[in-house]
Amino acid sequence: MDMHFYSLHVCSRNAEGGICVKTSGIEGDFRYTGEEHIPPDSPDIEAWRWVHSSRNYFPPIIEQSEFARIAQVFRNGAPTPRIPADGYYFISAEWSEPAVSAQNALKNAHAKSPLPRPLHLIDNDLPDCGKQFPQLVGLLHGWGEIFGFDGGKCDLYLQLGRNSDSLDQQIKCLY
Length: 175
Prior knowledge:
By secondary structure, this protein is an alpha+beta fold. Helices cover 23% and strands 32% of the residues.
């Protein structure tokens, strides 16, 4: 399965007024790292500049396909990025079976062995859910996403419920 990622914490402005962002991925058996150059005349250049200026407020790594959702959030009125207190923030929705399963697994793991950061459970169906960290609303799919914040940075983004086969392994990564 081919996968391509942006490393949002590793982006910079270039001399031409565009943005450079580190990329990595897998294509078949081939693994790569490199850079993508977003030219100043790109339709998404203003969204990229917003991300660059607030890069610590975004997850360190996202799938390249996810950027379109971040750009849409920007186009809908670029919210001022916010960072909540240090902790893990799990976003759930009652209508999503994967999110509910992930939440239950996360709560069970936390009950057996508390996570190293405070755990906050947030209901995606509540109207003020997006106020916690409005710049990340575009990354909510209903999979049971978890964001980690530490020292003023977003340092983690996982779609816990997306793959139930790896759920336990992903939860172990939080420790």
